[in-house]
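Could you help me review a protein record that somebody else here produced? What it holds is a sequence and that sequence's fold in token form. I need someone to confirm that the token line plausibly describes how this chain folds. Take the sequence as given and treat only the tokens as open to question. This is what I was given:
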Amino acid sequence: MGTVPLFLQKLGWKYDMKENKSKRDRPRDISWKRKYREEKTWFGELKERFGFGPVPGEKKPLVFPDEEEAKETWTDTLKENLKENRAIAGAREKLSVDRNRRFLRWVFDITVTVIFSVLAAIYFFQPVIMQESSMEPTLSVGYRYFVNRAVYTFSSPQRGDIIVFKTNGSDDAALHISRVIGLPGETVQIVDGEILIDGEVYEDTGDYPEIVSGGLADSSVTLESGEYFVLGDNRNNSEDSRYGDIGNIKKKYIVGKIWFTISPLSEIGFVDN
């Protein structure tokens, strides 16, 4: 006699004493193998594509479809794949074009912004330092101001504007700051400390000292087209149109208009013209 080991008993084996041999009486379950073969072999692929193929548990011969039907099926499949590939290629091309457009638009925006910033810095934010006492107490010596260079591009200076000008067209010419009093076509004269424009007394809006010397304006000064007569607010300590080295100011020599104080910090703000 013999004893079947425990691990063989669990597998369904037992010892036949009469025949003195072992046998396995548990049926084998191989359905998973058939299913695996069906899914992983070409039979499963045929069944998936054309709906035919061997059926588990049935012993039937493999039946192939009609040749024309197979060709049509393959042709339709190829056409669908071709359409799908074309659609994918078109979508990729469109995405690439959109990306390029966005990049070019971004470059354009940056370029325009930089150009605008440079032009704005040149025409609106040119700094100038008050180095003379000719405009005190309105503008103090050592203060820094922004000059608006674009304001007179399409317009002309008005009476009372505080302007920055040169006496000639040289790039090295010194900058001067004064207030516009006389306009083109007018006649300016200073008599007994009063300013006469076309024979009428000009009333200053500010509290300025009485003029002691009229200089060239002791006799009437006629302004030609594009010429301006300027005075400093510090009327008795100012180099302006009353003196020959300054004289009447031509518009082409006017740099711009004082419009903003940038230093000292306690005085930051717009200049009241």
Remarks:
- Residues 194 and 201 are 7 Å apart (CA to CA).
- The chain has four helices and 14 strands.
- The longest helix spans residues 67-124.
- The radius of gyration is 51 Å.
